[in-house]
What does this fold into?
Amino acid sequence: MSPALAAAHITSPSTVIGARVAFIAGIAVGVAILAGIVAQALTRLVALVTNLAFYGRLSFENVSPWGNQLGLGVVVVPMVGGLLVGLMARFGSQAIRGHGIPEAMEQVLHNDSRIPARMTFLKPLSAAIAIGTGGPFGAEGPIIATGGALGSLIGQILATTADERKTLLGAGAAAGMAATFGSPVSAVILAIELLVFEYRPRSLIPIALAAATATSVRTVFAGTAPAFAIPALVAPGAPAVGGYVLIGAVIGICSVGVTRAIYAIEDAFSKLPLHWMWWPILGAVPVGVIGYFAPRTMGVGYENIEQIVGGDLALRQVAFLCGLKFLSWSFALGSGTSGGTLAPLLTIGGGLGALFGAVAAGLVPVVGIDPRMAALVGMAALFAGASRAMLASVVFAFETTRQDNALLPLLGGCAAAFLVSCLLMRNSIMTEKMARKGVPVPSEYAADFLEQLLAKKVASSPVFSLAAHRTVADVRDWLASGEPGSRHQGFPVVGEEGELIGVLTLRDLLDTRHAPEAKMSEIIHRAAVFVYEDATLRQVADRMTTERIGRVPVVTRVPPIRPIGMISRSDLLHAHQKRLAGATRAEKTFRVR
It folds into this structure.
């Protein structure tokens, strides 16, 4: 074997995961423990601010703003909170504005998952102030964002790769959600659908272990009861399932309206002749005014969700609460304050589902629609339509209520909402802000087409090789002859038995520094780069990119390794022709029909 071949760069065998994934998984578990503790700390911090702001006492007792005795003074409290959040955003970090997930998505996609260290304390602190002073948000969004920031920070400290930081960010975010609601599976799915943008063992395993760990941390503080304890729901019949699917479709239309309303209000704020630092104060005015007439709209409001889905509120109360909650939340979020979207969407969606379910039950009682089941479907469907995290929405509603009879209605309703949302709206509530900045966000997760093709199926043949004993003069005469193969840009050099010795480019052969009598084997100056016949085109493309070459020989795996073809950049592009042709045929067929 020649020295050049002995030092050859060979594509490594494809493996699912390696020891490094186990290392990252161990770090993810540590991140999850910290995120679980942070979730509990933020919950208590919200309680502390609520007690101070509405009751004037120093206490960590979990209370709601509903029972305050401030009278019209309740209007001022959210404004003070808005002022503090605005100051923190102006002089701390502008990234604390909003509900956190779009900002984390942007860091994943375009900043190698690097979230500034200050976000690990500025985001939870600003959220605690905003929510504790009556902001109509849930704590889960800031907790998810804080968990992601924590994972990113640890990844930066440990000098991990961008992919590993993305995994740790996703693990921290999933841990935050799991620690809040005790919903580990939906937390994993949410991280996949909205943050890591992939379904691969290298990221799935650490994120799953992190979610399980954070849920275990939650049980130490909150026990094992579901987040929303409601009476058991009866399994629906086929007509009822169809009704829930229709309700989900209507909720999908509502999700489009909710998303557009939020961004319309945000656009209106952007036109004000004021610095954005002051916007949260203005956004807090409707929060306080609405809170004076409807105290239930203020604060986290997880109790509202439980009572709506459990059927404990009259329909008039549900309509009143959800309508005003929507107004309060949309103005607050549109102003750029710090808060989450999940709890408000669940409240509004649950209320819409309950109302639609009650109407359906009254009009067609024979179908068997249960307004409580409809509320649960509406709760999940609004989040599915607004966020496009369909599977996470289905599993979340199940995990937080433990209602196994609701799985089928949830799946149908969320799928219908997802379909309607995709038909009527280009971007989601999570991605609209990035789309306006010109930041592309992946919306589909498909198997890599290049991973499905082997090098031997695509390689060009026959191979025009150069015998090792041929001289430079002889080869140059052949190149000038214009014979078949002489126009190629690269050539394998082979020995007497056809085994690969090295690779020479056209530039090498025409280099005037080589003596005419020099042999091919003597002018090889770099280690051979080749791929085995069973390598995937993804491996080939990665190798060509890493080595900065435009073509690579494909060789047999059984010694002596012989070249059986060549793959160039144009071959890689041509490989996509089959995929594109299939998509074109499908589009033409649809148009004909």
